[in-house]
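Entry type: protein chain
Record version: 2
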Amino acid sequence: MALDRCQRLAAVAKLPKICEASGAWTQFELATMAKKPTLSAHLRDARLKRGLSVAEVAENTGVSVASIYLWESGKTRPRDGNLTALCKALKLPIRVTREMAAA
């Protein structure tokens, strides 16, 4: 008997099959879908790409190291003035980053 798409994906990923003929997504498909980047991931990735430590970014923006950690973890968001300073320190486009922060 031929396996349907859901059964094949579940078998390959060793996950329970959660879809039938309804066309619902399997856990494997949901896990591999592209996710919209978050502000916190965007900031962390930019810092790492430029080879900066959290302490260096904090010093360049005039905030505490704890603030950078909170922003990169997504627990809080920077205020507008701090976001502008972050964009300058990390060489990020201010308009795009503000739109991401507003989302």
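Comment: Residues 1-33 form one domain.
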